[in-house]
Amino acid sequence: MKELNDATAVRKHYGEPSHMSIAKQLDRLDQYCRQFIALSPLVVMATSDAQGRADASPRGDAPGFVAVLDDRTLLIPDRIGNKRADTVLNLMENPHVGLLFLTPGINETLRVNGRARVTVDAEQLGPLSVEGKAPVCGILVAVEEVFFHCGKPLIRSAIWNPECRVPRGGFPSLGKIIADEIGGASAKEYERGIEEQYRTRLY
To answer: Which fold has domain 24-157?
Structure first.
């Protein structure tokens, strides 16, 4: 089996990036980045621990839920969840973070790379409150690299095409999956608990 094992092999296989691919990378958030973030209801956050074990986790809310504090700083609310805290625990060991912002209807995405720290300061978190509830913490990202990613992956996936939506009955419910994977209760019981969580514990 042939593999790519070093940077030289990668460059030989892929060739060199175009001038535009390099030149479009910024070290701060310009007006277009700010506008895209204000429209985006979803960001995927990639982190890794000290050993390099990686994790990607979605964060979603109403469009503009990620606060742009200035041209080089973002504040991302971390709301109530399953308490695994994978992202936050990773950041305790390795501050490097990669963000991918998505906006429904737009095929291009925004990539932001930087260094993060975690705040529990009430004054910082207060403006991010929803339904009177502040986030559990906030992830402050110092922007180092930012650029728009072309729309080819989303075009190929047809992710925004309503005709490509998977019918809900075409995949098992989370309750069914959990019941089969760990047992302890029936699928219906898990489904009732999940529905209650979705109804009462979004914030």
So the answer is: Pnp Oxidase; Chain A (2.30.110)
